[in-house]
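yo

u said u wanted the structure for the complex thing, so here. seqs first:
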Amino acid sequence: MPFDAADLTALIALCRAEIDRHGERLSFLDSAIGDGDHGANMRRGLEAVYREREVIAALPLPAALERIGLVLVMNIGGAAGPLYGTLMMELGRGLPPDADMADFATTLARAVEAVARRGRSGPGDKTLLDVLYPVQAEVAGRAAPARIAECAQSAARATEMMLARRGRASYLGARSVGHEDPGASSCALLTATICQYLKEHAAP
Amino acid sequence: MTAVPPPRPATVGIVIVSHSPLVARGAADMVRQMVGDGVPLAWTGGNAEGGLGTHVAGIEAAIEAAWSEAGVAVFVDLGGAETNSEMAVERLDPARAAKVAICNAPIVEGAVVAAAEASGGSSLARVVATAEELSS
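structre next:
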């Protein structure tokens, strides 16, 4: 689908609203197994991107994504800032101009690997990677947006029964089991928001 | 003709990054007590709003404040401090980034031991190795 500045501005506003709506829940999840600030950190990050949305949307898409990554890094803080920042910055740096879906899938795969290196994490460690890996696999398989959104949400729920091996939750050992990972949860919210928009605005 | 003494080699700088400004400042106080003003030293703690956390801009500023041509050794507490420090280092000019090391060492003991080593004029590699012995 064609994707222009108006789409990006709209998506930024939707993502910011979704994170704002679920901020309390993200912090609640984080207080169970972490330091309880994930909702506030994500709100701060998305709010900063929203403030810059006009400038960002005027950039070519790769530069816009890279800029979003930088704004997230500088504003989310916490452990999530470098992870979301790395994802978006790598996407922006890797996408060729006029990228098609195949380019996007390849670049997303590389960006997810960069997040894994940044967090020194892999599948099953109870992090946002447990959403990113399956989402990336669905994107690579050209799944429809609705299917990708559903996959992201079920992947986030599946972190509930995982034992945390990275981040502060790992200090809790077995007690981390039984709580959904807040990073996986915010990642699924954002993925679902983006997919919903793409579904509604797909070229006929 | 007066003999000009060779310039003193630069001393490795120390940066302390904690989620808590109190911890970061306290660790820096302990370093100062140990080595006085002989070692470039800076600390940062807390998120951009002053709560517990770390942020990239604060870490960049601390690295700048403790900058030394001999390099800078960075000490961190929990995971976010480490990844945010990595992002801060990657944002430096590559020639400078190559002279910054994030140490795998306990924040207080590591910073104190590293500063003592640095104050003797040791290289960055030596300073880092001495601090990291604490974790081995």
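Residues 5-200 of chain A form a domain with the Serine Threonine Protein Phosphatase 5, Tetratricopeptide repeat fold (CATH 1.25.40.340). Chain A has a mean pLDDT of 94.
cya
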